[in-house]
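This part of the workshop introduces the protein records we will be handling. Backbone structure tokens are a discrete shorthand for how the chain folds in space. Once this layout is familiar, the rest of the handout is easier to follow. The record below serves as our worked example for the rest of this section.
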Amino acid sequence: MAELRRFLVRQLAFLLPLGAALFALEHYTDVDFMLARLFYSPELGAFPLKSLPLLSFWGHEVARDAVVVFSLCLAYRAWRTRDARLGVTVLAMALASLAVSMLKAASAHSCPWELSAFGGDAAFFRLLDAVPLFAGSGRCFPGGHASGGFTLMALYFYWRGSHPVRARLALAAGLVAGGLMGLVQMARGAHFLSHNLFSAYVVWCVIVAVFAAYEGWCLQRAAAAARRRQEIQIA
């Protein structure tokens, strides 16, 4: 239990300042707009790569479906092998994706391609600002597509205790997959950089919470079993 507490303290010490840094990046800088302008054409009044098949089909639809299929394969393997930890990994991936989807559905922030600065008619506003009258359709924060790739980071916790090298590779793979999927959406005008960074943040927080709960349950179960054995020996 002491190790679990140390793990949670380390995670909080990492996540709290990281969350503050992400908020500052979104709220006090123009990085989102600077990057979005790289993909926006003022002459066309649109994002030229929005409907490019390489991005809209392969980078969006195929990449999304590949993550879903991979997750289902993991779930099937967990069921066939009765691997509880792998089952928890799949659960963490699903809950992380669900958390991002729920936040996105409740968001009043519109996508870049809907904003007046990029050929649309929706008003831009930052996190914690008052929602303007013409905010648009919203439902664009955090980045939903990138979250699919970021959920692969859950495999880090699956291998963390048994295969450290695999764990680090899984973490890197999740960050790269989520980053590339997020970049696809940025190039299409669907998301800002901050949308994807917050997506990674939410995904990691959910994964940490799920595995912390699982590890705590395992420790309590082991302690209860030890007490029962001790009681039997005394009796």
Observations:
- Residues 2-234 form one domain.
